[in-house]
Amino acid sequence: MALLRPGSAPDAELLIEAGGYFMRPPLMCDFKAWAELREDSRAFLKPWEPLWPSDDLTKSGFRRRLRRYARDRKEGRSLTFLLFRSRTQGILGGLTLSNIRRGVSQSATLGYWMGERHAGKGHMSAAVAMVLPFCFNVLNLHRIEAACIPVNTPSIRLLENAGFRREGYARNYLLINGTWQDHLLFACLAEDHAAFSEKITPSVEGMLKEFL
Predict the structure, then answer these.
(1) CB-neighbour burial class of residue 53 (10 A; exposed 0-12, middle 13-18, buried 19+)
(2) Spatial separation of the C-alpha atoms in residues 31 and 57, rounded to whole Å
(3) In angstroms, rounded to a whole number, what is the distance separating the alpha carbons of residues 209 and 23?
(4) Residue 71 maps to which CATH number?
(5) Other CB atoms within 10 A of residue 84 CB
(6) Tell me: the pLDDT tens digits for 75-129?
(7) pLDDT in tens, 60-85
(8) What is the average per-residue pLDDT within 3-9?
C-alpha cells in the first residue's frame, strides 16, 4: 500500500469501512471529541495504558501526536486509526498497528482502546474483524501480535474470539500505569485468519477507500 512506503503522498489517507463502522487516521478536527472521550474515560483506561503525559489532552499535545502518526505512516512503522460508528459519526475508540516489520517477519503489533461509555457493546470486536483483512490482504502481513494484562478478561475474550491464539507469558513486558506488568502474548497468522474468516469477518467488499 502506497501509504506505507517512504515518500507516499502525505495528503492521502485510509478509510476502512464495514458493518456500520469506519476507521481512519485521526485529523486535527477530531481533537475536541477525542479529548472529551479520553477525559471521560480516564479512570477506565488508566489501568491498561502507559502513564499519560501532563499535556496529553491539550490541542498542542494532539497536534504533536498527529505529526508523529504522519511520520510513522510515511516511514512504514505504524498506522493509527480512530473508530467511528457510521450512523452517528461519533468516535468510539482507537486502534493501532505498530512496530510493522517487513523482510522475513512481515508482522505488526495490534493495540486498541475504547471509550468507557462504548465498552462492552461489541464495537472493538467489529473493529478488529475489520482490520485483520486489511492487515493480511492489503498490507500483506503474515502475523499480527497482541498482548494484554492477564486480568484483562474482556481483552482476552476479544482476541480469542477474533482468531488469535495464546502463545506465551511475558514477565514485566510493558510499563503500564507506571508499573512493569506481566502480559499474555497472542498472535493471529494469515492462515489462522483464513480458517476463521467466514465466522469472524464482516462483509468487507469495498471496505478500502482513499480520501483527500
Answers:
(1) exposed
(2) 9
(3) 11
(4) 3.40.630.30
(5) 22
(6) 999 999 999 999 999 999 999 999 999 999 999 999 999 999 999 999 999 999 9
(7) 999 999 999 999 999 999 999 999 99
(8) 36
6's CB contacts (< 8 A; 6+ apart) are 74, 75, 76
Q: What is the secondary structure of 3-60 as a DSSP string?
A: GGSTT--TT-EEEEEETTEEEE---GGGHHHHHHHHHHTHHHHGGGSPPPPTTTTSHH
- Residue 151 falls within a domain, yes or no? no
Range of the domain at 123: 2-141+196-211
Q: Is residue 93 part of a domain?
A: yes
Residue 38 neighbours by CB distance under 10 Å: 21
Q: Structurally, how many domains does the chain consist of?
A: 1
- On whether the CB atoms of residues 203 and 183 are closer than 8 A, the answer is no
For residue 90, tell me if it sits in a domain: yes
Alpha-carbon distance 2 to 8, whole Å? 6
User: What does the mean pLDDT of the chain come to?
Assistant: 89
pLDDT at 4 > cutoff 90: no
Residue 182 in any domain: the answer is: no
* Among candidate residues 67, 76, 123, 74, the one with its CA nearest the CA of residue 95: 123
Distance CA 108, CA 100 (A): 4
* DSSP bridge pairs for 111: 96
